[in-house]
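B., you asked whether I could sanity-check this one before it goes into the benchmark set. Here's the sequence:
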Amino acid sequence: MNIKEWKSAGDRATWLLGNADQAAPRDHLQGMALQLRLWRYPHSGAHVSWSILLPVREFRAKKSIVREIAWDPARERKRKAGGEPDVRIRDAEL
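And here's what the prediction gave me:
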């Protein structure tokens, strides 16, 4: 992966880490609002963010969700050129 491709993938991954509530899949996030975001971006190792999403208005019967997004810059540099960064997205009900 050349430097331009890596920067583009890194920019996209950084956006996903900071905007987890906007990342796909979003269908089960309907009626949810971001309440809190925590992150861990160590110098080496995976960058991880956790977003707590709470139900609003008529969706209050739904359970809250925590969304974890993880991206490893070192692993990304070793990948072949491609469009989207290698980002892991996991959701769990609270």
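One thing to flag: The two ends are 38 Å apart (CA to CA). Otherwise nothing jumped out at me.
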